[in-house]
Write a structure and sequence with these properties.
This is Glycosyl transferase family 1. The protein is α/β, with parallel strands linked by helices and 440 residues long. It is built from 17 helices and 13 strands. α5 packs parallel to α7.
């Protein structure tokens, strides 16, 4: 870990606070783990209670600082207690209610934003050297840029998915949403000396797209996660295992992932080998389990379990024989996820279990599994190739062990918090140092 004196004073700006329940909160907590508490603070928008184990200085922005957004959300909360409709796989099939929600979201996001005097005074007292933000919306871009300008410090954007390509791509508000997004992205780039991305393919593409340097930083895994794993240990033969081979998925079911999981469930029903039957157990947020339960109702090989806390994840992953990662094949969702690397991929690799990936082969997450030689990827939207790969994994415990060992070794080198966090400190310190030199 870097010397304490090298840590710059970072102000994190975003919708989600540090925490252990959302992908963004987990990634932030892991990347900034060990940061000196007097050199880390956050401005956040959501009412979700933040975690204080990594960051202890917060300024929760009053929702009324964006009055149109505030009253729009209150109206939706009263009129639609179930929240926004689930995204359709085909944009043409979206309901009138879904399209209305998109326009209302755009109105809220593009509404005027006032930086409260209390916030400006708070940021001046804190004296940040760098403003770091995962952005994701026009409102957060305006907030991050406004604070960076007010403090006279560089902005470091961290792109977790390719939302610049997909946000307001359906022409919301007669194209006003898209134009506002593009104008604010230009301001983000103008205030940034360099940026960060969630994957190497994204960093390569964004370097060409925005003409500033980009580095790849993704979720990292605490060193404790690597304890208790014995590489090369011979796994039990599933022929003698009473319950057969256990496939496990842990994550959200949104963004069309439920459809790919259901396809795996259908493939499991068609296994005709002499092996004991295989089963897919799905751990997901409670709301997802309720919302998508009907998609798995006729798939007896799929068991919907429960939501799991961050402290339970590693033990659940290591209880599996095979871990499952899925993404949607729907073209508009592929545009959104193609450069992303899911928060759980480093966790999967560190667990030392083989991975079955099912999604378009060109996605960064699927390519990462292949690069690590940690499992098998089925890049076709068909059941037959899934059946073949599942039978291969079920029938060859040594293959599963090899993939698990490979993933574990790859994660220890590429995804351990000690290695990633040191590089992350150096990256932000370089931005802060360059800014100080330029101010002289």
């Amino acid at each position: 870990m870097a010397d304490v004196s090298t840590y710059p004073r970072v102000l994190v700006v975003g919708a989600e606070p540090f925490g252990h329940t959302t992908g963004t909160g987990i990634t932030l907590s892991n990347l900034f783990g060990g940061w000196p508490t007097d050199r880390l603070a956050q401005v956040h928008l959501t009412a979700r209670a933040p975690s204080t184990d990594v960051c202890q200085h917060y300024f929760p922005l009053d929702p009324r600082s964006a009055p149109v957004d505030y009253w729009t959300r209150r109206f939706v909360a009263k009129g639609a207690p179930g929240g926004p409709p689930a995204p359709a796989a085909n944009p043409a099939a979206r309901s009138a209610g879904g399209r209305m929600w998109q326009h209302m979201r755009a109105v809220a996001d593009l509404s005027p934003l006032v930086l409260p005097r209390q916030l400006l005074r708070w940021t001046r007292r804190y004296r940040p050297e760098v403003v770091y933000s995962v952005l994701g919306s026009v409102r957060v871009m305006r907030l991050a840029c406004g604070i960076a300008r007010h403090c006279g410090v560089p902005l470091v954007p961290h792109f977790m998915d390719d939302w610049p390509t997909t946000l307001y791509a359906d022409g919301e508000l007669l194209g006003l949403g898209r134009r506002a997004k593009e104008a604010n992205l230009r301001e983000v780039v103008r205030l940034s000396r360099s940026g960060l991305c969630i994957s190497t393919p994204m960093a390569d593409e964004y370097r060409r797209r925005y003409r500033i340097p980009f580095a790849a930083f993704m979720n990292c895994v605490d060193g404790a996660a690597f304890a208790g794993y014995r590489a090369g240990a011979r796994p039990p033969d599933p022929r003698s295992a009473e319950g057969g081979v256990e496939f496990v998925y842990a994550g959200g079911l949104h963004l069309g992932r439920w459809a790919s999981l259901a396809r795996i469930g259908a493939a499991l029903e068609r296994i005709v080998s002499p092996l004991p039957p295989a089963r897919l157990t799905v751990y997901a947020p409670e709301r997802d389990l309720e919302h998508y339960a009907s998609a798995f109702a006729d798939l007896p090989a799929v068991r919907l379990a429960r939501s799991v806390g961050s402290t339970e994840v590693l033990s659940i992953l290591r209880s599996a024989d095979v871990l499952v990662h899925v993404e949607s094949f729907a073209p508009e969702l592929v545009r959104y996820t193609r450069l992303s690397l899911s928060t759980k991929i480093p966790q999967y690799l560190a667990a030392g279990r083989p991975i079955l990936g099912h999604g378009p082969g060109e996605l960064a997450s699927m390519r990462h599994i292949v690069t690590a030689d940690a499992g098998l990827v089925v890049g076709e939207e068909k059941v037959e190739p899934l059946v073949r790969r599942i039978e291969q994994l079920c029938g060859d415990p040594l293959l599963r062990q090899r993939f698990g060992d490979n993933g574990y070794s790859y994660a220890k080198v590429r995804h351990s918090r000690q290695e990633v966090a040191s590089a992350f400190v150096a990256q932000l310190a370089q931005v802060a140092g360059t800014a100080r030199e330029g101010a002289r």
